[in-house]
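User: Reviewer 2 asked us to show a designed sequence for the structure in our supplementary figure. I'm pasting the structure tokens here. Could you produce the per-position amino acids so we can include them in the response letter?
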């Protein structure tokens, strides 16, 4: 029911802040509000994944050779 009501709403403009938008709707759509906050609060990084994993590999292999694979996870 909540999802159907939300889908009948007009689409927000691209210039509108989605966090503020959902803050206004949290009473009307509490379940969707929780989902929106979960996915809108994902941390974004500019570090390329290759570089990130390369650094992690260097820590395990060179600097921390005593760490076993199961402890590193």
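Assistant: Here is a per-position design you can include in the supplement:
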């Amino acid at each position: 029911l909540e999802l159907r009501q939300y889908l009948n709403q007009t689409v927000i403009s691209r210039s509108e802040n989605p966090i503020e938008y959902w803050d206004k709707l949290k009473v009307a759509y509490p379940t969707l509000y929780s989902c929106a906050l979960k996915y809108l609060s994902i941390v974004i990084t500019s570090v390329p994944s290759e570089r990130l994993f390369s650094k992690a590999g260097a820590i395990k292999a060179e600097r921390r050779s005593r760490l076993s694979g199961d402890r590193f996870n």
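For the response letter, you might also mention the following. The two ends are 41 Å apart (CA to CA). The first helix runs from residue 2 to 7.
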